[in-house]
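Our working data are protein records whose layout never changes between entries. An example says more than a description, so a record of this kind follows.
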Amino acid sequence: MEIMIQASYFLAAVLFILGLKQMSSPVTARRGIIWSGVGMILATVVTFWDPSLHGVSNYVLMVIAIVIGGGYAWQKGKTVPMVDMPQMIALFNGMGGGAAGAIAAVELFSAIHQSQGIPGMGVSAILGTDVAIVAIVGAFIGTLSFSGSLIAWAKLDGKFRRTSLVPMQHWVNLILLVAVIYVGVKLFNTESTLLVLLFFALVLLLGVFVTTPVGGADMPVAISLFNALTGLAVGLEGYVLDNAAMIIAGTVVGSAGTLLTQLMAKAMNRSVWNVLFGGFGQNTASAEAGEIEGSMKEVQSQDAAIMMAYASQVIIVPGYGMAVAQAQHKVWELAELLEENNVSVKFAIHPVAGRMPGHMNVLLAEAGVPYDKIFDMDEINPDFPTTTVALVIGANDVVNPDARNDKTSPLYGMPVLDAALAENVIVVKRGKGTGFSGVENALFYQDNTQMLYGDGQKAASDLIQHLKKL
């Protein structure tokens, strides 16, 4: 039986790896999710035959957990709107970190219980030096990811809007981090359950305090980082439980999440440290808004439709505003109409468009946009200077030319889409406000830019109606 269990875990790990590989392309992503899901089901089912499980109560608890957790995830996954997908990812990611932290807590409390009444015995003596270290580190990472992800979920869902909890927040964060490290070291040889509880309480607090200052523009990086930490925590706790599937799956998720975090941070010209302990200053940005010369020029939907109808090429730049307006289907209908008029249409996606990696790709795929019409930033930027119209709908910071040209801008150095270089730029926007970063957008004031104010879905519908009349 043991051989069958280990073979099943190995097969599940292989399915995880192959599934993750398939997820690297939008064309095969659905297949990858199915393969990974099959691997997870296999790993879960075979756990019921684990010889270390004793007593009916364990099986009852496992079934209850699977029914509640699986049922909620199934229902939520089927009904969640695409615009709310980042919140769900953050929430489920937090559950993964919490599970890893809970495993570590069980092992630590079990070790302390076994050491009771035996002088000189502590966590490390019961678990062994290597397992004790891994358990404590895994507890730290998993618990931090749990509380941090919950704050990320609350901020994305609009339930929590604060950017600080106490004065001199970053110094408090540093003090908390030092305290966590100190208590974690003491935990190594402890026989005290109170010290374990204090450790988890401090880490939970640290996750809350570290994530609270993270702004909306940085949230995709923070979510990706917590995803990587959750994977790493699961891998470490797999070592504690001697579970090969958890080790492999956690390591794969952790390494993939780390690479994604680095790519996201690079796309924003930020370091991960700066995301967690720095932050775009909204006050600074607003103070600099008045320095931009010129004014925004409004265009009516009929004029915008005529401009696009006689264009040779239109590049559509979607952003989170398009997701909020649920305008992706109308935008694709607009693109199809343009193509019927022999206008070349492409979609340009910034690496941090939306509120999580791949958010725009998923929305456009849902609307039926073919993958060969969706281009990453590096692929599409050379096309902007030869483009007749760049239609920016719901995007803001990712098309701000100040990120390239103005060294005083808080966005300076962040790679952006070169929509500003198109012959004409039409920006669909609800109002004249700034983006997530709070930084004024110089693109909106350019001579070749015209603003089409209004809800994204209504604006796209109006453009479609005018195009049909031409």
User: Anything to note?
Assistant: The first strand starts at residue 313 and ends at 318.
